[in-house]
Design brief:
The protein is mostly beta strands. It is built from no helices and nine strands. About 0% of the residues lie in helices and about 55% in strands. It starts with a strand and ends in a 10-residue tail after the last strand.
Amino acid sequence: MEGGWWGTFAGNGNWLPEAENAMILERIEVESRSEYRASQEPRGFLWRGRHYVIARVLDRWYEGYADARRSPLRYFRVESGEGEEFIIRCHDQLGAWSIELPDDNSPGLP
């Protein structure tokens, strides 16, 4: 592997960011509003056996749409009905959702 301060290129050509910048993700199931497009906007999600209702989407952003070499990803910063904030991500090509784990990924998390 070749690397530098910006990250590392794995043998398969994938870029691996430095550990402190890497998002740690876990798969989740998401209920979404999909009137015209599948998985358009999340309304709720199931994570570690608990159902979270999304009260509102606080922010959204996109990655990879302008670069044919990257998979298109959509990110949502959401607030649950209990006031908790989460970042969830949709991988458009796979239709797979994941949640960014908090920095303290301790066993005590939900």
